[in-house]
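Task 17 of the worksheet. Students: predict the tertiary structure of the chain below and write it out as structure tokens. Keep your answer in the requested format; marks are given for formatting as well as content.
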Amino acid sequence: MNRSEDHPGVIALPPLLYGGAFIVALVLQWRWPWPIFPGRVALIPGIIVLALGVGLAIWGRRTMEAAGTNVNPQLPTTAIVTSGPFQFTRNPLYVALTLFYLGLTLAFDTWWGVIVLVPLLIVMHLGVVLREERYLDAKFGDDYRTYCSRVRRYL
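Model answer:
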């Protein structure tokens, strides 16, 4: 693998995908309000889920940095990270983004966030996760396949 090919070729940075999807949900909510609960019942649970997502993201990022690999999926991966949250899921940062997104969806009390999440997760799976997996398999071979056999993709 030459230097210019040493990256997974994801379609876009995941935070941009999640952010764009949430903006779509907010525009839909503004145009056609569709609350999940009456009143502000979902605000506190939303903040809790959002905080869980932030905490998981910080833990995952610190674990990757400690392992000496790039967090940005557009840059080369230098190591397979198997500690920290990577013991439980191969994609803790994407699980964290999903929790963050769901927390915002609850805090803004909109079913549109849930509806928009479905195509977002499909795009993430096909355009980011599967591309990363092919890249890591090609780069790390049996070591990566062994890790995959022990740890789930998501949860």
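Marker's comment: The radius of gyration is 17 Å. Residues 42-150 form one domain.
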